[in-house]
Every structure is written in C-alpha cells, then in structure tokens.
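Students often ask why we bother encoding 3D structure as a string. The short answer is that it lets us treat folding as translation between two languages. Here is a chain of 126 residues written in the first language.
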Amino acid sequence: MAQEIKLRYTDAELEEFRTLVISKITKAQAQLALIESSFRNDSNNGTDDTSPTFKAFDEGSEVMSKETSSQLAIRQEKFIRDLKNAIIRIENKTYGICRVTKKLINKERLKLVPHATLSIEAKNMQ
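And here it is in the second language, the structure alphabet:
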C-alpha cells in the first residue's frame, strides 16, 4: 500500500497556525511599541548641572542607544511583516510549503519559526 504524500496542511491545522501567528504578531507589535517609545524618550536625565565631560559621555551613549533601538525597531518591523505574509499564505492555503523543495515544512519547525518559508533540507542546501 503506497503512503499518501501530504501536499498541504489541513484547514484545521492552518487554523491552529493562524492562531499562533496572530498571537506572535500581537506580541511583536507590543515589543515594537516599547522599542519605539524608548527611541523617542529624550527625557533629560539631569546632566545640566554636571561637568561638561560627563555630559559629552551621556550624549554619546544616548546616540548609541538610539542607533541600537532603531536597529531593533527595523528588525521587529521585518519580523511583523514576515508574520503578516505568513497569514496571507495561510489564507491562500500555501502555508508550510517549502518554496525550494515544495515539500511540507516540519510542523515543529513552524511552531518555533511560524514565518518560515524553507524546510531544514532547503536551509541546509543554501
């Protein structure tokens, strides 16, 4: 008896993944809001009456902090975009299909990396 090759995840499985992805999007958007609020936080930390040297160090670290926050925000925005693309693939019923091998991506991998578009096999070929 030949084993049936599964071409896509069932509607019930896709619904499970949709729930997972939506919860990830919600958490990611909350984290992005925190990053953006820290980026915009230019409150004065009371260095007005301290020595000019300390003020220079403080300003330098503030610039570094803003650069780091900016990079984190960019990464978080990309993550959210990738998750939203996963929702589109769920709606199209193409979610979980490797774009290289055209085989189903392992369910455990998708639970860990719900926006994955490559199977481990395809990732290893890169």
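Translate back mentally: The chain has four helices and no strands. Keep this in mind for the problem set.
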